[in-house]
Amino acid sequence: xxxxxxxxxxxxxxxxxxxxxxxxxxxxxxxxxxxxxxxxxxxxxxxxxxxxxxxxxxxxxxxxxxxxxxxxxxxxxxxxxxxxxxxxxxxxxxxxxxxxxxxxxxxxxxxxxxxxxxxxxxxxxxxxxxxxxxxxxxxxxxxxxxxxxxxxxxxxxxxxxxxxxxxxxxxxxxxxxxxxxxxxxxxxxxxxxxxxxxxxxxxxxxxxxxxxxxxxxxxxxxxxxxxxxxxxxxxxxxxxxxxx
Length: 244
Ligand SMILES: N[C@@H](CCC(=O)N[C@@H](CS)C(=O)NCC(=O)O)C(=O)O
What we know:
Elements: H1 11-18, E1 24-28, H2 37-45, E2 49-53, H3 58-61, E3 72-76, E4 83-87, H4 89-99, H5 107-132, H6 137-149, H7 151-165, H8 179-195, H9 206-216, H10 219-225, H11 228-241
Parallel strand pairs: 1-2
Antiparallel strand pairs: 1-3, 3-4
Helix pairs in contact: 2-4, 2-8, 5-6, 5-7, 5-8, 6-7, 8-9
The chain binds glutathione (GSH).
């Protein structure tokens, strides 16, 4: 039997809710940014009504998660009568990005947005797996050195170039906020925690930096960053992963 999240019987309700922006949302994840930071920023940037759910006893909830991991997204219609769920950070982010208009204006733009976003996701996952995925200090140090001289400068050079080609306006595609912008915004803290200001800074990578300042200047994102939840997640992120 399939998992309830994947039950085809919910297709009509799912498709109906997928275009609604006045739903309420619940993001289930541990009390840090980690794999849920992008999702929460999409919701904030989209002006969504969302709250965060941090499992008090994850072990009891784990068996009912479709893949035994979080984040998970719950969306409830404005009138409270319909609920849908999405699992896996990549699927959640794409679902919400489309709903809130962060995937470009047409098929070409959508593919560009997904291309830049996917390239950033690949680096994020590599950092998590190779660096945060081990407690062995020697393995960690080697992973850090390898990435700081390989995949990270590779990512930085390509992204600085493509952002500059779009006019260094804080966006990857046209002049609109997209999932690609939000993904980059979220990986910067992680990359700087591994490489300091050697590779990424306002003066060294102005086009990448502009993505950060542009997103942070959005009133809805600023408001989210000032919430108690956000501050608590930043503190735990710092303690647990080494960057806020
Ligand atoms: N592929 C998943 C990975 C999510 C993931 O690894 N979640 C971790 C926390 S970062 C988790 O739930 N760990 C708890 C567990 O495995 O029981 C996604 O992108 O959503």
